[in-house]
Design a protein that fits this description.
single chain, alpha+beta, Helix Hairpins, Heat Shock Protein 90, four-stranded antiparallel β-sheet
């Protein structure tokens, strides 16, 4: 799969995912709008019921006052007849000017008494009519019945006085005047300057979101799942592409590695078939030695590939025995030392461990140290200086292999223990290998319940630290 096709897939899937996300948010927004409309309808119904109940209470009070007034009217007419008779008698008894003044005063007093007894209509006073505790109780009851269980603030606004005359707490007066639900109180009183009931919900948005929490959570969960799946698919595609490239590099390297000894063996066999070569015993023996060495090289290549296949299938079986780790290191140094000296380099021993005996598989541990020392030599182009040190650490021993080579970037340090991975060197392939060595090293060390780490800087060398428990 080429890079352009992968880019196209990522772009198309990204657009589809973005479109689905936009559609999802659009439906959630519509659902919130519908929920808000339902909320407003419930508030309207609840407050309308409160106003109706207040009017019923006021009508009942008016009826009681009317019944009382009827009794007062009957008493009024009886009293008026008695007062009129007294005034008439007073008027007949007037004989001098002072009596006239006295009569007028009595007439004014009688008029005031008649007005009080008649019970003349007084203007509607909402402050005296409306009971705050009753209003609070009715609003609580009606809103709870409609399922509106959130904090609310209310106030009664007098258009005649141009101010709030009743408030629940007085904390939200600006919000009541700007963002509240407004209803006319006692609409049947036909007042010139009506009074208004205003109700405001400070946590309205929070309440609506809580009511829709299941829908919102499901939508968010679906979006997150889609994004995770998309990310996973892209990672798999990229990894498959990278794996394909690594496999191609591995096959090319392996073909090159195998082709060289095969060609050499073929040429040596062809030379041995020549009669003139057969007559020269030393020359024939030299060709036979070449065939032996190249055949051993082929066997080593095959062994590395088989090792990789073994631990990849989880079939890495250890033959544990008590070994001296420093003795193993000395044997590796003796075998690889010549290759280092050829490059005018040296290997420095810095053994500081007092306890060096561990229980491990001698063959695999030898291969691990050989891989690390061989890499230190291969990736140190000129005059390699390799320092191998040991020290007791915790309940085991720590082996450090330090070189003065080309180093490894921080980005590549995370991948060098992956199977088939090789640090990219552009178009230059001056270091042979399959990308199997360090993955094999990591597998063996972890199989021994140990740990391996790397510390490196470009052009400053690398240090591999391997910990193995006793």
């Amino acid at each position: 799969m080429n890079k352009n096709l992968i880019t196209l897939i990522i772009v198309v899937v990204s657009i589809v995912l973005l479109s689905l996300t936009v559609v999802q948010f659009y439906w959630v927004k519509n659902a919130i709008t519908v929920e808000r409309t339902n909320f407003e309808n419930k508030v309207n119904d609840a407050v309308s019921n409160v106003i109706f109940r207040l009017e019923k209470i006021e009508t009942y009070s008016n009826l009681q006052r009317a019944m009382t007034s009827q009794a007062r009217v009957a008493s009024f007419f009886s009293s008026m007849d008695s007062i009129n008779r007294d005034l008439y008698d007073e008027m007949l008894a007037i004989k001098k000017p002072e009596d006239i003044e006295k009569f007028i005063r009595k007439s004014f007093l009688a008029t005031e008494v008649f007005s009080e007894m008649a019970g003349q209509d007084k203007p509607f006073d909402i402050e005296k009519t409306l009971n705050k505790n009753l209003l609070d109780s009715l609003l609580n009851d009606e809103l709870r019945q409609k399922g509106i269980k959130t904090k609310f603030e209310y106030g009664v606004y007098s258009s005649q006085q141009n101010k709030m005359i009743i408030e629940k707490t007085g904390q939200y007066q600006p919000q009541l005047l700007k963002n509240s639900f407004v209803f006319t109180l006692y609409p049947n009183e036909f007042l010139t300057n009506p009074n208004y009931l205003m109700i405001y919900f400070p946590y309205e948005i929070r309440f609506l979101l809580k009511e829709m929490s299941s829908i919102i959570l499901i939508s968010l969960l679906l979006i997150i799942i889609l994004m995770m799946l998309f990310t996973y698919v892209i990672k798999v595609i990229v990894w498959q592409k990278k794996l394909s490239e690594m496999k191609n590099d591995f096959i090319n390297n392996m073909t090159h590695e195998i082709k060289t000894p095969i060609s050499t063996i073929s040429l040596a066999c062809e030379a041995l078939s020549d009669q003139s070569v057969k007559r020269h015993e030393a020359l024939a023996e030299n060709y036979l030695r070449v065939i032996y060495d190249e055949n051993k090289r082929l066997a080593d290549i095959t062994e590395k590939i088989l090792q990789a296949a073994t631990f990849d299938q989880g079939e890495l079986n250890l033959k544990l025995e008590l070994i001296d780790i420093e003795e193993v290191i000395d044997n590796v140094i003796n075998n690889i030392g010549i290759q280092v000296e050829v490059k005018d380099g040296k290997i420095i021993r810095d053994f500081r461990a007092s306890k060096t005996a561990i229980t491990a598989d001698k063959m695999h541990i030898t291969n691990v140290i050989s891989n690390l020392v061989d890499n230190a030599n291969k990736y140190s182009p000129r005059r390699p200086v390799i320092t191998i040190s040991s020290e007791n650490y915790s309940e085991g021993i720590r082996i450090s292999i330090e070189d003065n080579g080309i180093g490894i970037s921080k980005e590549n340090q995370k991948k060098i223990f992956d199977k088939l991975y090789r640090v990219p060197t552009g178009n230059i392939h001056d270091v042979k290998g399959f990308g199997l060595g360090l993955s094999y090293v990591k597998a063996v060390v972890e199989k021994h319940k140990g740990k391996i780490t790397v510390d490196s800087d470009l052009r400053k060398g690398s240090t591999f630290r391997m910990y193995l428990p006793f």
